[in-house]
Amino acid sequence: MSMAANSKRKFEAMRNDSRLSRMLHVLIHMDRHKGAATSDMIANMLNTNPVVVRRTMAGLRDQGYVRSEKGRGGGWTLARKLEDISLLDIHQALGAPPIFAIGLTEDHPECLVEQAVNSALTDAFKEAEAVLVARFAGVTLADLARDFDQRFEQISKCR
Amino acid sequence: MSMAANSKRKFEAMRNDSRLSRMLHVLIHMDRHKGAATSDMIANMLNTNPVVVRRTMAGLRDQGYVRSEKGRGGGWTLARKLEDISLLDIHQALGAPPIFAIGLTEDHPECLVEQAVNSALTDAFKEAEAVLVARFAGVTLADLARDFDQRFEQISKCR
DNA sequence: ACCTCTAGCAACAAGAAAAGTTACGAGATA
DNA sequence: TATCTCGTAACTTTTCTTGTTGCTAGAGGT
After folding, report:
1. Is A32 exposed, middle or buried (0-12, 13-18, 19+ CB in 10 A)?
2. CA gap B63, B23 in Å, rounded
3. Number of domains chain A contains
4. Is the torsion defined by CA of B34, B78, B95, A128 positive or negative?
5. Buried b (16+ CB within 10 A) or exposed e, B2-27
6. Which residue of A111, A121, A150 to mutate against B (max B Cβ within 10 Å)?
7. Does the interface ipTM go beyond 0.90?
8. Alpha carbon A11 to chain centroid distance?
9. Are strands A75-78 and A66-69 parallel, antiparallel or unpaired?
10. CB atoms closer than 10 angstroms to residue B106
11. Is the Cβ pair A87, B144 closer than 8 Å?
12. Dihedral sign (CA A53, A58, A63, A64)
């Protein structure tokens, strides 16, 4: 029963890039778990498969946020404290994928109308992106963990 | 030579939704053009084909920003003045497509960690979206046209 | 030594989404 | 009536991301 792990969700092919959300989820769980988490375990948690996990976590490893160890007893461990990892860090470790689903056209670079349109749109997008990046930079995984604690407390109280 | 129009760009299938950019481009040109623009003409301008143009412009027509007329001499005309159309109007007329390429996960709605993560992310996205929407609402097509005029003037001066 | 567990990696398959395409219908005008 | 034009449905193409398989290599335990 060692390698009976993966594949649950076959369809429903993700219109959005949910890697950031997933990695944040995983990292916080890793912090609590204490002990290496195997790709298989993580894949189960995310309803995906171990190869996808390794693929995605590779970026985090390269940036020094997690470590991976081969062999028996190996797996993934946090390489930093949660308070030293921001949402922006993880976003960038994932390769800073495009934030916006809306894009510009470059069909007629010399067209002054196109230039005016693109200029207005890029200004707006840059402004929104700056806000998002600032937000991401200002939130650490420790903040999320604290939020978790509060939610847990809240639920405990209600019983 | 009447119907030798469409298809230039076969490949390069658009990673982003560029409909907003394209429609803005078209609308401003329509304002200058004076006279109905056929889907074929517009398709040529955008390096696409007439059916895609109709499909996209349908939303703008339904919201009253443009009119379409069938038959000889028909085509598309502006139904409002440029100063009465904002970028936000067009975005919404296109069905308010998703702005962000990054999404959340709902794998474990009961998981408090996931809740904490999603809460932080949605807050950030909402804030960024509010900024973008405010920007879009504050810019009219007339503003873009003015920007065009300035660029044109600039170029004329440089000669 | 050998066996098992683990990540790393490359290559391929699958599924979905957006755009492109084809085909035909309906209205308008000469 | 012939032709131009949009309206629309159905199908195809292209591309992206993820999922999957198969193999290599390293790390322990037995």
Report:
1. exposed
2. 14
3. 1
4. positive
5. eeebbeeeeeeeeeebbbbbbbbbbb
6. A121
7. no
8. 21
9. antiparallel
10. 11
11. no
12. positive
Residue B74: helix, strand or coil by DSSP?
coil
| Distance in Å, residue A19 CA to nucleotide D4 C1' | 51
Q: Do A99 and B101 touch (CB under 8 A)?
A: yes
Q: Beta B75-78 vs A75-78: how paired, if at all? A: unpaired
Average pLDDT over residues A117-141: 95
Return the sign of the alpha-carbon dihedral for residues A76, A82, A87, A88.
negative
CATH of the domain at A107: 1.10.10.10
Q: Could you identify the residue written with the tokens 């809740």?
A: B115
- Domain-located, residue B82: yes
**Chain B 20-79, CB below 8 Å of chain A: which residues?**
20-22, 24-25, 28-29, 46-47
**A158 has a chain B CB within 8 A of its CB:** no
Cα angle value B91/A128/B106 (rounded, 5°): 80
- Give Cα A39 to chain centroid, integer Å: 16
| pLDDT bracket for residue A4 (50, 70, 90) | very low
Identify whether A58 is part of a domain: yes
Dump pLDDT digits (tens) for A93-104. Answer: 999 999 999 989
